[in-house]
Write a structure and sequence with these properties.
The protein is an alpha+beta fold. It is built from eight helices and 20 strands. The structure holds flavin-adenine dinucleotide (FAD).
Length: 376
């Protein structure tokens, strides 16, 4: 059988692409090297932040707004809770990339945010010990996604729309001629009119020819039982946060269900050539920067570690995404280099990839994500 589209990689982005393609009536084959919804990529670890006042660049704001709408639709369709609203507090010095960026995105897009001075932060959230120079920006158009549930929901919706999904089917070869793309896995050979590559950290190898020097960063997610165990880190009392200080950039999410407060460093680890260089064991050394952060800025959260999980960022040089048609293979579209902040956008990325595969273009603003932006 010839498919309209093959999706290579069924993590956060590929599961969404498979759904949006199948929902438009395309015959879709999704291929995943591991079991579906696994812990060896970038889309696991219980929760992901979604926020609107996007400090990384204001051009993400329309995309995150569309994502909120699509997450709500998926939630209704699946009948399972995926997105929980929760305010997001950014803390840093007034001139930091974080604070200046959040304010810029808010002012360009008319977003409602509350500015807090040092005293305002500790009055509202006494759990924090900010530096004297710190200010805060609080936004309410934010929340957290249950990451594994989201991937499950996209895959289930794709299958309901007729997509065929093959787990434990690593792609080992891709060939393209003028009318189709031929994809070989360890189990078979398949042909399709279009190929969508959503390979996460494996894009470092699979897309080595797109002209984007991608690297991989090992990132450890840690959960702590606040000591003394109390309600002070539950969502109603405690926000999602991002905090930039001389210790680096850190983020955290409130204690949800049986999980404790989640806290991790953003970036700050060595850049590696590919996923094969990542160690999946968590060591005491992995806790050191996060403990130092907690002791300084969130001292009552500095309790025992109750859980940990290694995850990978796939970095582009400017930390913006790569979403485009393949520069040399017109039948192939790519989405990679999500640089540690992509998950919240999965549904809109799925929609964009379906547009690119089925029509060659999209109405969504993706100029920032062109694959050729690094070539001189
Ligand atoms: C610790 C951590 C915290 C994060 N926090 C946030 C956050 O709060 N908010 C946010 O928006 N984003 C966050 N991110 C980023 C976000 O999770 C990622 O950008 C997103 O999950 C990437 O999805 P993906 O589909 O590109 O990769 P993945 O989900 O890894 O999917 C790629 C898939 O391709 C498969 N594959 C690869 N090669 C092959 C092959 N040859 N054959 C078949 N299958 C193949 C892989 O097995 C994998 O399943 C975080 C990431 C990490 C690691």
């Amino acid at each position: 059988m010839t498919y309209d589209a093959i999706v290579l990689g069924l993590g956060g982005m590929g599961s969404a692409a498979a759904y949006h393609l199948a929902a438009r009536g395309a015959r879709v084959l999704g291929l995943e090297q591991f079991p579906l919804v696994h812990r060896r990529g970038s889309s696991h670890g219980h929760t992901r932040i979604i926020r609107t006042a996007y400090y990384e660049h204001p051009d993400y704001v329309p995309l995150v707004r569309r994502s909120f709408a699509l997450w709500h639709e998926l939630e209704q369709r699946s009948g399972r809770p995926l997105l929980t609203p929760c305010p997001c507090l950014s803390i840093g010095s007034a001139g930091s990339d974080l604070i200046a960026g959040v304010k810029r995105a808010a002012s360009e897009h008319g977003l409602v945010v509350e500015e807090l001075d040092h005293r305002g932060i500790v009055e509202r959230y006494p759990q924090f010990v900010p530096d004297e120079s710190h200010v805060g920006v609080l936004e309410h158009a934010a929340g957290f996604l249950r990451v594994e549930e989201c991937v499950h929901a996209h895959l289930a919706a794709a299958a309901e729309c007729g997509a065929e999904l093959h787990a434990e089917a690593p792609v080992v070869g891709v060939k393209q001629d003028s009318d189709s793309v031929e994809v070989t896995t360890t189990k078979g050979v398949y042909s399709a009119a279009r190929l969508v590559v959503t390979a996460g950290a494996w894009a470092t190898r699979l897309l080595a020819d797109i002209g984007v020097p991608l690297t991989v960063m090992r990132q450890v997610q840690l959960w702590f039982t606040p000591a003394p165990v109390s309600l002070q880190f539950r969502p109603k009392r405690f926000p999602i946060f991002m905090l930039e200080s001389d210790l680096g950039a850190f983020y955290g999410l409130p204690a949800v269900e049986k999980f404790g407060l989640k806290c991790a460093r953003h970036y700050g680890a060595p850049e590696l050539p590919g996923p094969e260089n990542v160690s999946w064991d968590v060591t005491v050394a992995d806790e050191v920067p996060v403990r130092e952060f907690l002791r300084r800025h969130l001292p009552t959260a500095d309790g025992p570690r109750i859980q940990d999980s290694v995850c990978m960022y796939t970095l582009s040089p400017d930390r913006h995404f790569v979403i485009d048609r393949h520069p040399y293979h017109p039948r192939v579209s790519v989405a990679c280099g999500f640089s540690g902040h992509g998950f919240k956008f999965s549904p809109v990325v799925g929609e964009i990839l379906a547009d690119l595969a089925l029509t060659g273009t999209t109405k969504h603003p993706i100029g920032l994500f062109r694959a050729n932006r690094f070539s001189s």
